[in-house]
Amino acid sequence: MPQLSDRTANFTDSVIRRMTRISNQYGAVNLSQGFPDFEPPKEILNRLAEVTKEDFHQYSITWGAQNFREALARKIQHFSGVEVNPNEELVVTCGSTEAMMAAMMSVTNPGDKVIVFSPFYENYGADTILSGAQPIYVPLNPPEFNFDPNVLEEAFRQKPKAIIICNPSNPCGKVFTRSELEIIAGLAKKYDSFVITDEVYEHILYKPNVHTYMASLPGMKERTITCNSLSKTYSITGWRLGYVQANAEIIERVKKVHDFLTVGAAAPLQEAAVTGLNFGDDYYKDLQEKYTHKRNLFLKGLDDIGLRHTNPQGAYYILIDISEFGYESDMEFAEDLARKVGVGAVPGSSFFKEAENRYVRLHFAKKDETLNEALNRLSQIRNKIKEL
Length: 388
What we know:
The chain has about 400 residues and is an alpha/beta fold.
């Protein structure tokens, strides 16, 4: 049999999705893969029920239904201040995962370099490899996960085609400040690089942190490629609705890649999701309050147990320091946590380029009763897992 491709040999399956399977195997409370266990807004579900009886069962326009793109453009402009042409500057994708892949394939050539902050969402490494690019990793330094501007500029001196920024960050919960984004923007302009942003957690923020849109900074709309999703904002991770926002020249390339990757996002789900895109500001205020409550509940529980952890500024992930348990492998710890304690987590090493085995990632996008059950199980962690 002929050899399989080299590019697919150079990365593993998703550790996050693997930990969901392990959690299911042991009946663990799954705090590994970041999806909620509560329903989307009723208004969206009610519209979905109507859509099933209407004429939305065939392909929509490849780059997204017209009314969906128009509603999306209005929402983007409302929150970011960036004016978006729905016909020339948007492509609707099958989730932000496709959005990122389409963006990478549209702007990079084999051998191009791309800056990636570490820790990073695991897909970025695979996206870089599949597009033939070479990652340059720049550390975000714990516990605040700030970057050194001098180290970042040294990376830019290697003339990367792009830099990828996850803001707010998965897995560390960092929200990049405006001044930090201005430093990145200045370097991108100085060295003529694209900025590819992943902003799926734009509305999940904890005061006083605020989200600054890279495309809104002076001179950055033309070189920013925003990848985003409806999954986290409306609790519809299974609907796979995302988008790429960029200037018209870039979007023309993205349209071609998207067309042959997936043809188009699901037509009935786009139609139902328009309802969410038209929500007023009260929805997003309530969303922030909901997640602030969940974060506070979970952090207090971890503090009561005595587990050291990060304090997220945005998104819904926490890194737990597992140094006290003496494991050389965080993967082995995560498997034991699922099997012995009954809580699913993701080994932190899957997010870091550096040799890092002292963290596991948990998420708190769950009902209160689910979080309390997880905390109840975690309270027994030192009885069920060996300590150093």
